[in-house]
C-alpha cells in the first residue's frame, strides 16, 4: 500500500490523501472544472466531485548556485502573492519562461496547475579566470 494515500494507485480513487511536509497535490473540481493546489503537511479528504490528478509530489528545492526553468509561470503581484481569476483558478503567463534562482529567503515551492518544469534544477555555469562564455539571445 502506498504510504501517501489509502489507494493503491498514485492518482487514487481512495478518499484520503496524506500529504507529507514539502509535498503537494493538484485537485480537479469536476463541478467547476478548476484545478487547485493543496500543500502539505495535511490530510486531504477528497469529495465525490473531486479528482486528484497529480501527487503527492515533492516541492522543488533550488540549492545555492543552482537554478531551474518554469514554463507558463503564475502571475504574482508586487507582494509576491499568486493572483487568481474570478473563478479561483491561478492566472498563468502562457508560453513565458521563469528562471528561478536560489535566494536566501526562498523555501521549496510547488508547481501550480498549468506550470511545467521545463529544465530541472541545474548548477550555474561558472566562468573560470581568463575565460569567457559565448552567449546567444534566444528571447527578446
Q: If you had to describe this structure to a student in words, what would you say it looks like?
A:
By secondary structure, the chain is mainly beta. The model is unreliable at 1-9 (pLDDT under 50). The protein starts with 15 loop residues before the first strand and ends in a 17-residue tail after the last strand. The strands form three sheets. It has a three-stranded antiparallel β-sheet with strand order 3-2-5, with no helix packed on it. Strands 7-6-8 form a three-stranded antiparallel β-sheet, with no helix packed on it. It folds into two domains: 16-58, Roll (SH3 type barrels); 60-133, SH3 type barrels. It has no helices and eight strands. Helices cover 0% and strands 35% of the residues. It is elongated and about 65 Å long.
Give a quick set of tags describing it.
elongated, 2 domains, 140 residues, three-stranded antiparallel sheet, SH3 type barrels
Amino acid at each position: 500500500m502506498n504510504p501517501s494515500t489509502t489507494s493503491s494507485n498514485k492518482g487514487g480513487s481512495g478518499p484520503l490523501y496524506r500529504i507529507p511536509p514539502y509535498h503537494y497535490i493538484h485537485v480537479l473540481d469536476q463541478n467547476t472544472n478548476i484545478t487547485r493546489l493543496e500543500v502539505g503537511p495535511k490530510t486531504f479528504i477528497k469529495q465525490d466531485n473531486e479528482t486528484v490528478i497529480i501527487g503527492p509530489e515533492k516541492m522543488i528545492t533550488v540549492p545555492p548556485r543552482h537554478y531551474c526553468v518554469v514554463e507558463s509561470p503564475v502571475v504574482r503581484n508586487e507582494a509576491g502573492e499568486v493572483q487568481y481569476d474570478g473563478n479561483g483558478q491561478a492566472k498563468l503567463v502562457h508560453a513565458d519562461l521563469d528562471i528561478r534562482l536560489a535566494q536566501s529567503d526562498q523555501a521549496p515551492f510547488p508547481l501550480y496547475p498549468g506550470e511545467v518544469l521545463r529544465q530541472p534544477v541545474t548548477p550555474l555555469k561558472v566562468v573560470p579566470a581568463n575565460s569567457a562564455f559565448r552567449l546567444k539571445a534566444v528571447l527578446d
